[in-house]
Design goal:
Length: 141
């Protein structure tokens, strides 16, 4: 990892959450303290998942899907908060296909900022602890 950016978030039960990051998103594991926290190589950035009470029941987790807090961003209502990554288009397509064939999208892929230098294809997905992740690719490079 280059450790350009570091973010630590609640991971719920790590034994449940880690396969999402490794098997579906294709990330690699790095340092860890077993049963407490796990670093994820999040495309060159350090994402640390901390073992926590899973967000599953009423009052524990933010609302699911369209009931979450959202802000309007060109053609979409994006969940806030979320974390995200910009990927090269070929890598984006691999991750998109993996998500589509496994857990499915929180918000299906779409293109926004069409016709501008910021044109991008993006989608949103939830990890098993209901953390929202935006994965995008800038279409004009």
């Amino acid at each position: 990892m280059s450790n350009i950016f570091h973010l630590a978030i609640e991971g719920g039960k790590l034994e449940t959450t880690l396969p999402f990051y490794t098997d579906i998103l294709g990330c690699k594991l790095d340092m860890a303290e077993e049963g407490r926290w796990q670093d994820i190589d999040f495309w060159g950035n350090e994402l640390t998942l901390h073992e926590s009470k899973p967000r599953t029941g009423e009052g524990i987790a933010p609302a699911k899907g369209p009931d979450r807090h959202r802000h309007t961003v060109d053609m979409g209502e994006v969940c806030v908060p979320h974390l995200g990554i910009h990927l090269p288009y070929d890598e984006y397509q691999k991750v998109r296909a993996s998500v589509e064939n496994t857990v499915g999208f929180l918000d299906t892929p779409y293109t926004r900022f069409k016709g501008t230098d910021y044109e991008q294809e993006t989608f949103f997905v939830e990890d098993p602890n209901r953390n929202v992740i935006e994965i995008k690719s800038m279409l004009k490079t």
